[in-house]
Amino acid sequence: MMQSITSRAHPFFKQLVRLGKSARYRRKDNLTLLDGIHLIQAYCAVFGSPTNLIVSQSGREYKEIKDFLCSIEKIPRPNIFVLSDALFHQVSPVKAPTGIVASISIPELKLVSENKDKTFCVLLETIQDPGNMGSILRSAAAAGVSDVYLSHDCTDAWAPKTLRAAMGAHFILRIHEQSNLVKIAQQFNGTVIATSLQANRSLYQIQLTGSVAFIFGNEGMGLSDDLLQVTDEQIMIPMLGKTESLNAAAAAAICFFERVRQHLDTQNIQPECYHQ
Amino acid sequence: MMQSITSRAHPFFKQLVRLGKSARYRRKDNLTLLDGIHLIQAYCAVFGSPTNLIVSQSGREYKEIKDFLCSIEKIPRPNIFVLSDALFHQVSPVKAPTGIVASISIPELKLVSENKDKTFCVLLETIQDPGNMGSILRSAAAAGVSDVYLSHDCTDAWAPKTLRAAMGAHFILRIHEQSNLVKIAQQFNGTVIATSLQANRSLYQIQLTGSVAFIFGNEGMGLSDDLLQVTDEQIMIPMLGKTESLNAAAAAAICFFERVRQHLDTQNIQPECYHQ
């Protein structure tokens, strides 16, 4: 089914605009927006076609989007809505128009019966910036993290901007929102590690090959005392420059991939084997 | 001197708005804006007081800004302009108002007579996102990079948004804009390393303790063929997850800090020594 929407008063158009803007609205309806063809393809690879696709008049003519629309014309066919570029811009407020958006149900958390595979987890406290959140999720997925726990005051993990920055990591990770991080840390069966500028030990002095949970705190304020008290290790990332300042997402990437490095080192795996 | 600006027609106000918006204008006058107290303090630590400080009516009352304004009341005193919150918002379009902005001359590149200290450089080709650019500069400064070379089509390194994301790295690094990266790579006296998803060797298999230049390419397209051809090593960052996708700034941080790790490993430096 392909349908044109030409009026701002169209109920579906109004819903799309609200989904883009309001975390409360997304949560109420358990819906969100995927913006851009690559993110939508990452979703399809895991969950199959989304129910609703929204394309702009210009976007319909882009080869990549055309090919994609042809490839998914199956049963059940998704609903395809065509919007004028001006209307589409209100749905997808990114500067470089992507030409395609999908509205999806936020996937349910795949429950795992036992916790024995929780060997690599991440706890995020009060991460405020959607770009940072997305980048952390993306690096986590690439490093083999299974579960990410978010405090109640983190930015919305399922906001379109966070989804875009994470480039499909949402569909691989188990993301636990509104988590009690102190409880999770206390119950974690392994080493709970927090980064802290005041720490004496370096990231590179810690064995990371076992069951590990990294905690990262707010971009400006760092971790709360409550959470610091339940960590097993506090480490700092040694710096050789005249500054001691790293972006939260950069710090997370460095920690995650130090674990990857140690893991490969232990396994003595050759790159040909793990780089599929 | 403290001066109130109440009119949008004030020439200095008009200049500030233009400086925030236009890369061409910044370049023409060799001026830019520093947004937020921490960034301004990082500037002061290197260059002393900026000539012009702009505070909002609300910002004047913030303790941090008040203390800062008192601390810099020296000779030569900076010009301090007070703007209504509404006017200030047009100068500093960040969501959470910072309350203080400085306008500064873009610092001249400190020339170094010889290249012998160019042991750790970064080349950036067509990096488009100001947040990524800023985060890369910030990580580079923290890892001890001396020089960063930017291709002509990178996003403006001195844009307020890039400056904010880099958190003072600009005042420590030598940033060479409009560089001919192929020439720089060819003339580099050390190992020129590019990341590539097609590479066979892993970052962790390369010795990084010598003179090293890392090259990073465009967020979507990667490196140009011209530049790939003049690299000494092409490496990939091994990933253990179900995705092989990293944000450009995350990838850069991982590479920079693998060099830091190898350096510390060689030197057998204890964290107490290098964490000042």
From TrEMBL, chains A, B:
Keywords: Methyltransferase, Transferase. One of its GO terms (biological process) is methylation. Gene3D superfamilies: 3.30.1330.30, 3.40.1280.10. Residues 120-256 form the tRNA/rRNA methyltransferase SpoU type domain. GO terms for molecular function: RNA binding; RNA methyltransferase activity. InterPro entries: Alpha/beta_knot_MTases, Ribosomal_eL30-like_sf, rRNA_Methyltransferase, SpoU_MeTrfase, tRNA_m1G_MTases_N. This is RNA methyltransferase, TrmH family. It comes from Nitrosomonas cryotolerans ATCC 49181.
